[in-house]
UniProtKB/TrEMBL annotation:
Residues 48-161 form the Methyltransferase domain. This is Citrate synthase-lysine N-methyltransferase CSKMT, mitochondrial. Keywords: Methyltransferase, Transferase. InterPro entries: Lys/N-term_MeTrsfase_sf, Methyltranfer_dom, SAM-dependent_MTases_sf. The gene is CSKMT. GO terms for molecular function: methyltransferase activity. It comes from Pantherophis guttatus.
Amino acid sequence: MDQREAWDRFYARREKNGSPHPFDWFFGYKEISTLLGSVLRGLPPGRARVLDVGCGTSSLGLELYQRSSVQLHVSCLDFSSAAIQCLTRMLQDSPPPCHPLSKLECHLGDATELSRLFTLGSFHLLLDKGTCDSVLRGCPQRARRLVSECLRVLRPEGCLIQISDEDPDARVPFLETAGGANINIGEIARVNGISYYAYTLCPKASDPVLT
Ligand SMILES: C[S@@+](CC[C@H](N)C(=O)[O-])C[C@H]1O[C@@H](n2cnc3c(N)ncnc32)[C@H](O)[C@@H]1O
């Protein structure tokens, strides 16, 4: 599903059913919090920049922003205006973050054009929960572009974490052709016999970061 209109309809239908509340693909923040905590603790001191690509109305970016004791600047991006409107309302209703200087911004934009929206080499951490999966089902070429755009806006020492139910036999060769390096795979959950993986990758050392 890489059609914006289909996602708009999906989120608009959910909103009609009551006040804005998170809807999570696969699972929410809790299942990934240990992994995220270990990545954030490994960063140099100072504010860390995080981008949730294809955030939808997930709890991931919102809870990370609220619960992190490390100062974060979280950007949540989706191309569905219905999702971004709903997330913006959830943010307005949410309690203040643990770290008083943390902030969260919602962006309406296309994840295959990240380098037009953000400075190259600016993020410490990119999160993709189910987004690459949905683009892959519609158009593998666009999915490759999504991954390469993620890698372009990452800092050289940063990492991209993709959460997916796709088997490593298929996902790893795809990520390699999209330009990912040092790919690590961890099974983070098993629900009803389905394994969910965290694929962690970083930009190739040779990739130039141009501004
Ligand atoms: C499977 S859902 C996952 C949503 C969210 N990450 C979660 O975990 O619940 C895929 C999301 O990717 C968004 N999406 C798909 N293609 C996109 C693109 N090219 N640019 C930005 N967002 C996109 C959709 O609108 C949808 O919110």
